[in-house]
Each structure stands twice: as structure tokens, then as C-alpha cells.
Design brief:
Nucleotidyltransferase, domain 5; 448 residues; 5-stranded mixed beta sheet; 10% strand; 3 domains; 18 helices; two-stranded antiparallel sheet; alpha/beta
Amino acid sequence: MPKPQVIDDQQHERVLDRVAAADVAKREGVVCTRLPHPSRPGGRQSAVWTVPATMSAVTGLAARLPADGVQMVTLESTSDYWRIWYYVLEAAGLAVRLVTASQARNLPGRPKTGKLDAMWLARLTENGLLRPSFVPPAPVRALRHYCRARTHLVQDRTRCWQRLEKLLEDALTKLSAVASTLTTLSAQDMIKAMIAGERDPQVLAGLARGRMRAKHEALAGALAGLFAGHHAELAGLLLDQIAFPDGRIARLTILISEQLASLSDAWGVNADGTTGPGAGTSPDAPVLSAVARLDEIPGISAGLAASIISGTGLDMTRFPAADHLVSWAGLCPRTLQSGTRTRHGKGTGNTYLRGHLGQAAAGLAGTATFPGERHARLARRRGPAKAQVAIARSLLVIIWHLLNDPQARYADLGPGHYQNRIDKTRKARSHIRQLEAPGYQDTLTQPA
């Protein structure tokens, strides 16, 4: 008889005596408390009432729940309506738990109302059947807001560049076929000259700078289009629209740096033992700052490191192992097992964090590093898309270790790591067997 496997309950699986839950909506929420019955030993009693989703009403609820001895409050993550409940109750010192709809879904075939949903949430909470979602502390939430706002502005600016390229194609101007990107100063000078009324391709090609001057003839041929007056008007509007987010992005970058400086967990330690917002930035520091630690990873810049930290936070105790963080980010498939059949489903995860890691993984492709070599090996066998996801997962595992241990440093294994670990004798025998299978016979000699 096989020995049974012993599995200890996790922290969120504790059975609680006094709990509360709220089924939240935009204007109001239905609150339910589950407490011991006052007159029947071993019994339970529920109290259900409606609370408006206003600051004063939720503050009053935060004052009432401690009087009932509530140990845990559960909220369902309905859109953004949970935020006022979570933030106010958390600020009042209550233990608040946010759960996704998939964790708290009611049983099919039963009626569904706000009252019944709140009671169901409370029952699941008291029996420890809900797994909480990750909600970072308030300082990291502020950093997350700044980073996501910057991401949105960068995406808006990119869309404007794409519209400008589409407009040039409509004007039969193939500038983007010669220039690597329209964001270069040379390309912008040519576009501004066309907006000002210049149409001579030779004059426009003469505005090239640096290495693009060698492409003069190609530029002249690409700029000989039908750039009309309405194209000039629309191109000017798009350039103005592109210039607007540039200043906002620069401002958000400063705010992100200031917010990171206010997080003591992100500080490093200098060689003389001092710490602070600017400590841990030199290579000889015993403890690098969190951004500097991630910046050592190929493909991750300081700005990208700040965005990744805003997604993961700095407290890795929320993720007991690197696999938990990978699963939370949605970089591994869901396991669906029934009997002997195992399937893999898709999960959502944190789309912002997954996008940042995908950006880093794409930047690693073709580099002379261990992740770059691994990307090339996977891309040959599985394709570039799956290789990018695999490298993003590997980067997240590295990030978990670096944030979990402040003294850890990234050390690249080098592009020849796989080649150095190959058993050359075994590989030679394999090739010989492949040659002998069709009937070839040959003698191999070791080079001198």
C-alpha cells in the first residue's frame, strides 16, 4: 500500500470563526457577516445588509466590522468597483482578501442574487476555500499607476507613428522602406520638409544625417511620390500628436524614479555600508538596488526594470516559489487533469507584466548571451513565438531569485553553454549510427 502524501494547508486555507464578505457593484454592495450563533452552541448566524459604495458608508462599515470581531473580509474583483472597499477597509487595519470570479463562482442551478452571492462568499471564506489574488501595497500601487500610464502613452505614440507611415504609403512615398524607422531625425526632417512644401526628391534626400547619407539615391527614389496638400495637413497633425506624449512620458519617467526612491525595499547598500535611495548603484556595491539588479539581465533596461517591479512588487514572500510567480503572470499553461487524461488550458495572468517580459525576450533574440542562444535553439524547433514565451518565463524565474535574495547577482552562462555541455563522443557515435543505417561505412580519424 503506497504511503499517503501529507500536504499542509496554506495560510489562506485556515478555517475562521468570524468573517465578512461583500458582493460589490458600482453603486452599492451587499455585505454579509458570518458569526457564531449567540444562543445555539456550534451554530452559525449570518447578517446581510446593503451598503452604498461611498466613502462615508464604507468608512462606517470599516468601523463596524472590528466591533463584531471579524477576522477576514472577502471581496470579489468585480471590474474596478472593489477598489473603494479594499482601500478603505485595508486602511482601517482589517484583513481584506480579494478573489477572482472564477474562485467565488456560485454553484450552477441555484438562484443568483446579490444577497445569495454575499452569503456564498462568506461561507467559502470561513471554510478557507478561497485563494486570494495578489494586491500590492499602496506604494507599489502608485508605482504601478505611473508605469501603466507611461505604457499607455508609449502605445498611443506608436499608433500615431503607424498612422503616419500609412499616410505616407497613401502618398506613394516609400520612406519607411529605406529608413529603418520614421522616428529617426533624418526621416523626421524629410517629413517636415514635405509638410513645408518641398517636393524635390534630391533636396529631401539631402536632409539625411549620419549613415543614412550613403542611401541618397535610394532615398531620392523612395521620396518621389504624390505627396499632396491634404497629406501635408494630416502629417502635421500627426507629428503634433506625437510630440504631445513625449513630454508626458518624460514627466512620468521622473515620477517613476521618485516613487522607486521612496521604496526602502528597493534600496541597495554601498561598499561603506550606507543605504538610501541612491545607494547600491555601483558594481562594487555588496547589495545592488532592485532596479540595478534587474538591469544586469540582458534585454532589461532600467525603465523596463521599473515596470516589471511595478507588476511583481518587491515582496517575493507573496509567491512561495518562482513557479507561483510564473503562473500568476500567465506564462505557463493551466493543468486540467481528469483520470488518466491531462489537458492544458490557457490562463489570463497579468497582461502588463507579460508584455514587459515579452519585450525583454524579443530584445534578447540574436544576442551573444545564454538567453539569446536559448532563444535561437527554441526558435529553430518550435518557432519564434513559442521561443519568446519560453525566454520570458526564464527571465521571470531569474527576476524572482534576484528580488527574493537582495545579495544575488545575475551571471550569464555565455552563448557557448549548451555547446560546452555536449558529450562529443556520444554525439559522434550517434552520427556514425546514422551513416551506417543506409549502408555507409567509413573510418573516422581524430585530428592532430
